[in-house]
What we know:
Elements (H helix, E strand, L loop, with lengths): L8 H19 L1 H7 L9 H27 L4 H21 L6 H30 L1
Helix pairs in contact: 1-2, 1-3, 3-4, 4-5
Amino acid sequence: MSSTSSRDPLAILAGGIRFASGVSFLVAPEAANKLWGADPDDVGPTASLLLRSMGYRDALVGGMLLRAGLTGDANTAGWFLASGGADLADLVGGIANHDRMTAKAKQIGLGGAIVGVAVGLLGAANARRRAAR
């Protein structure tokens, strides 16, 4: 690992949160889906498969962002963009299904996706500034 001064605290925080969220969807997809505002009775086999797929995606992207942040890797900006891109995909999917979502799912799911896109963009810009120093 690189020295502590080259670590990216925002990448560590964002990567850790995304990784933990991904693992929660792998371990207990129905419970994680409920936490994000969905109706627990809406989880059938297809939904469970998609929730687990999202869990693998988030665990992978979050783990790589976390690793990049801890090591001071130059690819931190790229992993921030991957993280923000994943949230953008979730946001577009949520907007396409807006009329079928509960109020809680709209607030938590869409709001979380918007925050995730913003963190991805700001984190990437910050990482590029750090690398330019």
